[in-house]
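Encoded backbone
================
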Amino acid sequence: MKVRLNRWYNAVLTTLLSVLGYGCSSSYDDTIICLYGTPSADYILKGQVTDEAGMPVKNIQTSAKMISKTEAGVYTGEISSSQTDEAGRYELKYEGMARSDVKIVLEDVDGEANGGEFLSDTLDVDFNKAVKVGEGDNHWYSGKYELTTDVKLKKKQ
């Protein structure tokens, strides 16, 4: 008898919860929009790479990477990369949330060419200094931002 009562109770409770759950997730007002996702934006990380004398350095590999340190080790995921042009300028694109583990990594990949060998450098991306250049959609997408970071690389000794 107890088993039948429990089954009946579970069936009624399941039906009631499914009806209430459906009713809570639907909307009769067309102005209310339910969104699922995470806040995001488009970021352009750009700048100029120069040597210590202020001369532009071309062909420096610039990469935007997520670098996270955990107990298991260091996780690195590349987001975007490019090389500096004749004027030492770089531009990287990043789409997503402002995260504290996004870094710009600069590496000399051509050796002695283009002014000598330079030491690698890693920069923290401070999304708080980004300048808004495009509007969002007033929902999860907050717009387009630019962040300019100029870098002076040191030559290898």
About this structure: The CA atoms of residues 18 and 24 lie 10 Å apart.
